[in-house]
Amino acid sequence: MxxxxxxxxxxxxxxxxxxQSSRYTQSLVDAFKMSPSFHxxxxxxxxxxxxxxxxxxxxxxxxxxxxxxxxLFANSVKIQIIADGTEPNIAGYVQKYSSEVWQNWLTLExxxxxxxxxxxxxxxRYWFNAPLYSRYFLLPGSIAIILTLIGTLLTALVVSREWxxxxxxxxxxxxxxxxxxxxxxxxxxxVLGMVSLLICVTITITWFEVPYRGSYWLLFVTSSLYLFVAxxxxxxxxxxxxxxxxxxxxxxxxxxxxxxxxxxxxxxxxSMPLWLQYMTHAIPARYFIxxxxxxxxxxDIYEVIFPNxxxxxxxxxxxxxxxxxxxxxxLD
Length: 332
Fold this sequence. Notes:
This protein is an alpha/beta fold.
């Protein structure tokens, strides 16, 4: 976890629009590319970057106008920075790091000496979260953390208690099928999780006034699938542990802590080491948090929602298949 807990942002994906190429514009673009803070995509078509920022592929658009070279010598330069406001910290970093790159570039090119009175006007626009309120970003993500606790921790504790008391073996000796047994164990906590979801969403929208721009049916479908994944993980833990204390510790380590620290809820995944970024693909909360933040702040962006939905579906099917195999072996 120590590798993931870092507030230093690196390799922030940004798109730079160069309306008219010149020696100075290319030099400025190269300065952004040399910065470890940015991963630069260069182009001339702003519409392509507009779609990319909607899909979450980039976090900012930097527009260098066609009059850049002329305005540079006229002591009046305007550069537009459009930042993705769904992550306020990243938006702030983009503005801060861009200013640093700009000042270093002026020094490198000698404009700080030749035109000490140069007037630079940077026009910033924050998409999806115009006031840059952190609660717009944190509260949707916290819903995923709450559902993780309900789905994974509670299921692991209650089912492992039945293993301790011996009632699970009694249930398994009845004529019911394995699928019926599992669904019977998952359904009550699924209902509890959906009720919690309704309460959390209502409080988030009404009390904290976080905007919701997506469709509610899509919220229901994605939340149901995530709850199924979380419940399956909790049931798998309880099946392997069969002890409440061990199950609780395993649920915290396998379920809660990764969802809290490694899912992108607090810390940017692209700032983590590469090997840790690959590990986050096995964390279901990573996909659900991205879906929630997209539904709340951007709306029904299917290019973001569907790939994450398919990833959760795969994880849920895999966990449920593992549970079926383990329980069948214990019944043989």
